[in-house]
């Protein structure tokens, strides 16, 4: 049986930008009848296999009207990720998005992963928000950005896939067998552990600046592959390309919680 | 012999039948199957009874019989046979110990979860083949069965992994699964299934004649294996027939009967329903395990017992000590009722035994496990004899009340009648309701519906006739059970029931009656979960245990010290923290016997403990907490504010509240109100949340009103606010707070948490409905709440200790002329007797404190405590002694004529207070 990781995702954004449409599309495509449906569309769940784990998204929708704004903290508390949605045909909704980002940075949970979704990209002929603006803004705050269409099911899966690895990067994790080798120190040969991450390269690059792999046994030194990886220079053209990163190490790998960049 | 051959044949038929069903998913064939199984079992039982009689009378001593005949105490048992009539296979339980009993009593010997592989090998090395241990493998992170093999197998021992699913235990590779570890082991003592041969109990255990002997052995624990008590039989029997004539139980006869059966892969109906292909299968084993072994030995004295006398004398050490049975006793000893009970629980045997039954009624005082009262009622009504139940008994009122409590939850569901209707005559309303229940309730998991589909024992509430766990079936449990139903009843999540069960489980009456035949069989499963919850709540009432003391002290401390919390949130959070910590304590302590791991699959342990906490902490505190919450809200003015604003909001039309979706009409609002009212009666936050979800579901249904449109929070939250305002229930505020703070924090991220948050948000909006300027104020307020929640979650995670809560000390205050009063004081471990005396003087309002001192009353003697001693340490020391001691701290006059005090009275006051 695979372990299930629960992942609370909070949806923010102006009313009418299509928050719930995105979720409905995500949850209901490839609908698995074995999984119990929720009572309504405000709260939905979806379980996605990921490596040797199952990731269960618990998606909390919020009411976008101004009058409910003050309730948002109750919804985003404890969230691992926030998906902030704007409508590419409405400049106002992009402003609201910026307000949400600001609020999350000030009052949101630490390490919350932010993903920006420019919805209704099927209506790009009446677009008001250029993709370039959104990308620049996202880069400035270290968030993922995609343009989606709930109507035509464009980039919906990608949006949620995009936040998964990031979320687990930013929380402490370990991989491989917990006890490497036998308890007595004599055994020099230890099991190799590998950590594979499917992730957005650009995001890895950014994280790389402040992530540290920790090996519990100082004599082992840092994992070899990590060195290679960290010395590599990253080119901008690789950004946003999906990639699988395989990290091998002698002994267990631990990922240290990222410290906020200075 | 002929009958046996016949039974074998029929079993084979049965087996082929059940094998065939693996692929069956049509209902028709399924019911046919049930019918077949029922009749087969009926026949089997009849045969067993017959064979037994012949055995006892010594008419046909056959080979098989002689093989299993016991040298010991057969004669004495035969007397019992004559005095006690037999009415069915189930009820003819003897005092002889079944394998299951033996396993239960001796688990400290063979259940060694912490043992390493090496240690296990060492223990088993010196044992004959077939001897086993159950331990937890650190390698596999699973429980394993370590079995000693005989030399021809090469290795001295082999390990078999035990698979734990959500509800069952099974051996890896086997298709047979069991409700708990004991049943699993008991089964493999009889049938080898995937093992190379059957398991064998150590000689001393298998030959012990009384429970006391077993208890004595169990005291040795792991030392048993190296002690002289573990003497081996002179000639160890060969491994392939470990349970032969010179050892244990009548199990070998079971072998004959069961051999034909053990390869059967039977599915429980729900598994059939799901038609999964790879899951483990359930096997109806208790019937065979119990009835056969018991019948053979011929005795009829019941081992377990609704009679407290027998209980007390037979097993002086068996835990846990019982509280005195409540008045409900009388209900179950009434002969007339016991007849009904028998028949209700064993409907399929009625035919063969009818005459016997009726004839023997008068001379049959043996109490029979009572079925669920509701079942009883419906049965009686079906028989047209409902009047018997309406006779006045002390417990009736209570039951009615409980039943009422339960009723609205049924009635409150869509399509159900409002509670007022159901309340009219509770005994009558119940069965009627269960019959007319709309399909939606098909999933209600009641035996009155005979929805045996729900294998996962939760549903099998009909659990009374479970004599296997001898000592825990006791007289007061039926009331207990009933209460459980009022609140702890398994409520299916609102949507699943509708979708899944609807399709397959609307049963026509005819089918129901057929299914009823099976009820006796299924009733043998009592859900381990319920059993555990009940045991924990019993333990919590037993002040001789550390856990009981902890809980009782905390409960009384809270009730007596109203001023100890500064706010409602503070109070609820302390209670939540207490529950979490007690849960941690329980999962680590050894006070639960047998250990919870042996009864509950690991991933369910927390769920079960949480339920138990609700029952033993929230249930007694519910009234107090509610009153306190109300007081707090009155005091800080939020009650008044909410009241005024509710009025204001109710006058607005939906559009002004931002509602742009269809809203519930008056009828729907009424329905919702009913659900909210039901919610108020529940003590379990989980159950309350379940009702909240139903309310939300109803709102969605109205909103969608066949349009097929999905509504997100943009539309839902305004409608919820509107509905809450329309309901006009001030109490909702405290209800939401209660749920929010007391719900298991791990559930706050789920669906329940979401709608709870939404309801809280809606109420905050109403409270702050002073046009738009209120927004800012609210914002800071909610942020405060947020911070507190965050704090709570982190504290729960980091301190798994009960330290904060063991600091209570119950002190009695004794005056010569005014008797005894008790108070629970907050006393830290390093507070001296001197300080406690000062505190007592204050609390008991003593004018001349120098005349008084703190005494310890233990083992019938009084000791005055020196000023520099630490009462908490003394208490801890007393608790840590192997034998439980009854002790009291008493604050009284120093110069007292010791004989002038009537301390018996005092003691009673204490224990009752």
Automatic annotation (TrEMBL), chain A:
It comes from the Eukaryota. The keyword Lipoprotein applies. Coiled coil: none annotated. Pfam families: Ras. It is found in: Cytoplasmic vesicle, Phagosome membrane; Early endosome. CDD domains: Rab5_related (cd01860). InterPro entries: P-loop_NTPase, Small_GTP-bd, Small_GTPase. Keywords: Cytoplasmic vesicle, Endosome, GTP-binding, Lipoprotein, Membrane, Nucleotide-binding, Prenylation. One of its GO terms (molecular function) is GTP binding. It is a lipid-anchor. One of its GO terms (cellular component) is early endosome. Belongs to the small GTPase superfamily. Rab family. This is RAB31, member RAS oncogene family. It comes from Molossus molossus. The lineage of its organism: Eukaryota, Metazoa, Chordata, Craniata, Vertebrata.
TrEMBL record, chain B:
Residues 805-896 form the Ras-associating domain. InterPro entries: RA_dom, RIN2_SH2, SH2, SH2_dom_sf, Ubiquitin-like_domsf, VPS9, Vps9-like, VPS9_dom_sf. GO terms for molecular function: GTPase activator activity; guanyl-nucleotide exchange factor activity; small GTPase binding. Residues 318-327 have a biased composition (Pro residues). The keyword Cytoplasm applies. Residues 298-460, 479-502 are annotated as: Disordered. Residues 448-459 have a biased composition (Low complexity). GO terms for cellular component: cytosol; endocytic vesicle. GO terms for biological process: signal transduction; vesicle-mediated transport. Residues 636-775 form the VPS9 domain. Residues 110-203 form the SH2 domain. The keyword Plastid does not apply. Keywords: Cytoplasm, GTPase activation, SH2 domain. It is found in: Cytoplasm. Residues 330-339 have a biased composition (Polar residues). PANTHER family: RAB GDP/GTP EXCHANGE FACTOR, RAS AND RAB INTERACTOR 2. Belongs to the RIN (Ras interaction/interference) family. This is Ras and Rab interactor 2. It comes from Molossus molossus (Pallas' mastiff bat).
């Amino acid at each position: 049986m695979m372990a299930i990781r629960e992942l609370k995702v909070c949806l923010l954004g102006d009313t009418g930008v299509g928050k719930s449409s995105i979720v409905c599309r995500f949850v209901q495509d490839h609908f698995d009848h074995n999984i119990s449906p929720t009572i309504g569309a405000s709260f939905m769940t979806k379980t996605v296999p990921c490596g040797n784990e199952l990731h269960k998204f618990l998606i909390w929708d919020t009411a976008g009207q101004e009058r409910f704004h003050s309730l948002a903290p109750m919804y985003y508390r404890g969230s691992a990720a926030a998906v902030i949605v704007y409508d590419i045909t409405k400049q106002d909704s992009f402003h609201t998005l910026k307000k949400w980002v600001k609020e999350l940075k000030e009052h949101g949970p630490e390490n919350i992963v932010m993903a920006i979704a420019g919805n209704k990209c099927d209506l790009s002929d009446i677009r008001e928000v250029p993709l370039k603006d959104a990308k620049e803004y996202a880069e400035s705050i270290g968030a993922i950005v995609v343009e989606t269409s709930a109507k035509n099911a464009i980039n919906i899966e990608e949006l949620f896939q995009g936040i998964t690895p990031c979320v687990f990067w930013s929380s402490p994790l370990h991989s491989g067998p917990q006890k490497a080798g036998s308890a007595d120190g004599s055994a020099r040969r230890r099991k190799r552990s590998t950590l594979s991450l499917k992730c957005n390269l650009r995001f890895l690059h950014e994280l790389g600046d402040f992530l540290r792999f920790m090996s519990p046994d100082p004599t082992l030194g840092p994992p070899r592959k990590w060195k290679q990886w960290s010395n590599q220079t990253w080119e901008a053209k690789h950004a946003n390309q999906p990639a699988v990163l395989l990290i091998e190490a002698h002994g267990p790998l631990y990922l240290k919680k990222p410290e906020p960049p200075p | 012999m002929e009958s046996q051959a016949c039974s074998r044949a029929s079993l084979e038929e049965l087996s082929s039948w059940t094998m065939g069903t693996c692929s069956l998913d049509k209902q028709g064939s399924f019911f046919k199957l049930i019918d077949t199984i029922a009749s087969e079992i009926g026949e089997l039982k009849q045969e067993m009874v017959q064979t037994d009689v012949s055995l006892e009378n010594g008419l046909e001593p056959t080979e098989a019989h002689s093989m299993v005949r016991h040298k010991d105490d057969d004669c004495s048992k035969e007397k019992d046979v004559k005095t006690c009539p037999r009415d069915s296979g189930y009820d003819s339980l003897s005092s002889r110990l079944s394998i299951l009993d033996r396993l239960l009593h001796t688990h400290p010997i063979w259940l060694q979860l912490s043992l390493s592989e090496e240690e296990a090998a060492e223990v088993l090395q010196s044992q004959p083949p077939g001897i086993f241990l159950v331990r937890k493998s650190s390698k596999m992170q699973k429980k394993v069965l370590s079995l000693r093999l005989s030399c021809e197998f090469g290795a001295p021992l082999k390990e078999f992994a035990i698979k734990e699913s959500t509800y069952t235990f099974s051996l890896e590779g086997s298709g047979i699964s069991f409700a708990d570890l004991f049943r699993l082991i008991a089964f493999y003592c009889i049938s080898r299934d995937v093992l190379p041969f059957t398991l064998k109990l150590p000689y001393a255990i298998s030959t012990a004649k009384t429970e006391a002997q077993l208890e004595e052995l169990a005291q040795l624990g792991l030392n048993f294996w190296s002690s002289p008590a573990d003497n081996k039989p002179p000639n160890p029997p060969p491994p392939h027939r470990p349970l032969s004539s010179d050892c244990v139980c009548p199990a070998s006869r079971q072998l004959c009967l069961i051999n034909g059966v053990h390869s059967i892969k039977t599915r429980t109906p729900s598994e059939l329903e799901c038609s999964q292909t790879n899951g483990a299968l359930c096997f109806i084993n208790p019937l065979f395990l119990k009835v056969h072994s018991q019948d053979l030995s011929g005795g009829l004295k019941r081992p377990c017992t609704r009679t407290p006398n027998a209980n007390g004398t037979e097993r002086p050490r068996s835990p846990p000590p019982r509280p005195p049975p409540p008045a409900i006793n009388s209900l179950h000893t009434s002969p007339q009722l016991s007849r009904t009970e028998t028949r209700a629980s064993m409907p399929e045997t009625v035919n063969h035994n009818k005459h016997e039954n009726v004839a023997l009624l008068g001379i049959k005082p043996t109490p029979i496990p009572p079925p669920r009262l509701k079942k009883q009622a419906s049965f009686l009504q079906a028989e047209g004899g409902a009047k018997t139940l309406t006779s006045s008994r002390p417990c009736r009122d209570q039951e009615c009340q409980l039943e009422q409590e339960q009723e609205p939850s049924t009635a409150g569901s869509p399509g159900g009648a409002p509670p007022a209707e159901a309340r009219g005559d509770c005994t009558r309303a119940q069965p009627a309701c269960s019959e007319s229940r709309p399909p939606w309730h098909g999933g209600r998991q009641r035996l009155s519906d005979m929805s045996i589909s729900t294998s996962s024992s939760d549903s099998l509430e009909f659990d009374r006739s479970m004599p296997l766990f001898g000592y825990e079936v006791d007289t007061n449990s039926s009331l207990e059970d009933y209460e459980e139903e009022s609140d702890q009843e398994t409520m299916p999540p609102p949507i699943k029931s509708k979708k899944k069960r609807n399709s397959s489980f609307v049963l026509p009456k005819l089918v129901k009656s057929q299914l009823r035949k099976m009820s006796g069989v299924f009733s043998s499963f009592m859900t381990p979960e319920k059993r555990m919850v009940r045991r924990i709540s019993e333990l919590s009432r037993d002040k001789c245990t550390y856990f009981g003391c902890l809980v009782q002290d905390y409960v009384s401390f809270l009730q007596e010290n109203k001023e100890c919390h500064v706010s409602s949130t503070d109070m609820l959070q302390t209670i939540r923290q207490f529950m979490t910590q007690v849960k941690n304590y329980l999962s680590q302590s050894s006070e639960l016997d047998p250990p919870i791991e042996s009864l509950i699959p690991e991933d369910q342990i927390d769920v079960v403990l949480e339920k138990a906490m609700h029952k033993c902490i929230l249930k007694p505190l519910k009234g107090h907490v509610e009153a306190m919450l109300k007081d707090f809200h009155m005091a800080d003015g939020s009650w008044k504010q909410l009241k005024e604003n509710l009025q204001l909001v109710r006058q607005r039309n939906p559009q002004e509240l931002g509602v742009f979706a269809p809203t519930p009409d008056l009828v729907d609002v009424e329905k919702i109100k009913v659900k909210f009212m039901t919610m108020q009666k529940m003590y379990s936050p989980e159950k309350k949340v379940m009702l909240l979800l139903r309310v939300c579901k109803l709102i969605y249904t109205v909103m969608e009103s066949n349009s097929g449109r999905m509504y997100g929070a943009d539309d839902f939250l305004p409608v919820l606010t509107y509905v809450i305002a329309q309901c006009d229930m001030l109490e909702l505020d405290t209800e939401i707070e209660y749920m929010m703070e007391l719900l298991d924090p791990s559930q706050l991220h789920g669906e329940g948490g979401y709608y709870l948050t939404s309801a809280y948000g809606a109420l905050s909006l109403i409270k702050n409905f002073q046009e738009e300027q209120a927004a800012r104020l609210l914002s800071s307020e909610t942020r405060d709440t947020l911070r507190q929640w965050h704090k709570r979650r982190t504290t729960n995670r980091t301190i798994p200790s009960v330290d904060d809560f063991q600091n209570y000390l119950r002190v009695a205050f004794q005056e010569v002329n005014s008797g005894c009063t008790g108070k629970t004081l907050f006393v830290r471990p390093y507070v001296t007797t001197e300080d406690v005396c000062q505190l007592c003087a204050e609390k008991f309002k003593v004018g001349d404190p120098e005349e008084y001192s703190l005494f310890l009353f233990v083992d019938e003697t009084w000791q005055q405590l020196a000023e520099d001693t630490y009462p908490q340490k003394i208490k801890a020391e007393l608790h840590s002694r192997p034998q439980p001691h009854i002790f009291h701290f008493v604050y009284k006059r120093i110069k007292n004529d010791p004989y002038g005090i009537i301390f018996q009275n005092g003691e009673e006051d204490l224990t009752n207070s």
